Amino acid sequence: MKPQSRMPKFTKPELQIMEALWAHGALSIREIQQSFPAKGRPAYTTVQTVVYRLETKKAVRRTKKISNAHIFEATITRSTAHRSLVDNFLESFGGRTEPLIATLIDTGRLTLEEIQEAERILRKRSKREPST
Predict the structure, then answer these.
(1) What is the mean pLDDT of residues 97-114?
(2) CA neighbours closer than 13 Å in the CB half-sphere of residue 116
(3) Does residue 105 sit in the same domain as residue 83?
(4) Which domain holds residue 21?
(5) 61 with 9, same domain?
(6) Cα distances (angstroms) measured from residue 99 to each of 22, 115, 120
(7) pTM of the model
(8) For site-directed labelling of 86, which of 48, 69, 95, 98 has its Cα 20 to 30 A away?
């Protein structure tokens, strides 16, 4: 999967479909629809519309056709999309992480254990990166 030069912005339904493709690989529209929980599952035509919108955004592509069903796969990775989502979200905080982290801590969505894990990851990354 090649990274996009300009990452498309995704709606919640688009992200849900991308998650299905990332989790299961190439799927038909029916298989994507069936990957949703039975309760609240979108209609086939809704999934089809969103998949075609993702195709226009070049986030998915048709890989083959089996009988009359097209098979679609993601053209961008989950981590690339997540990175773009985080970058776009941080724009609302002026690009600064401190206000976001403070809000996550204040609301109880970021635990001490998660902060400690983040510290471990940062230490590991700083050991791998050469000093400048």
Answers:
(1) 91
(2) 3
(3) no
(4) 1-91
(5) yes
(6) 31, 15, 21
(7) 0.76
(8) 48
pLDDT of residue 131: 59
Q: What is the mean pLDDT of the chain?
A: 91
Q: Are 87 and 101 part of one and the same domain?
A: no
Nearest to 80 by CA among 128, 27, 18: 18
Report the pLDDT value the prediction gives residue 52, as an integer from 0 to 100: 97
Same domain, 122 and 57: no
Task: Indicate whether 36 and 59 sit together in one domain.
Answer: yes
In this structure, the answer to whether residues 5 and 52 fall within a common structural domain is: yes
10 with 85: CB under 8 angstroms?
A: yes
- How do beta strands 27-28 and 60-66 pair? unpaired
- What is the rounded distance in angstroms from the CA atom of residue 79 to the CA atom of residue 58? 16
- How confident is residue 3, by pLDDT bands cut at 50, 70 and 90? very low
> Distances in Å between the alpha carbon of 55 and those of 11, 18, 32, 61, 105?
14, 11, 14, 6, 38
Task: Extract the tokens encoding 66.
Answer: 């089996």
**Burial bucket for residue 6 (CB in 10 Å: 0-12, 13-18, 19+):** exposed
What is the helix (H) or strand (E) element at residue 112, kind and residue range? helix 112-128
pLDDT > 90 in the chain, percent = 73
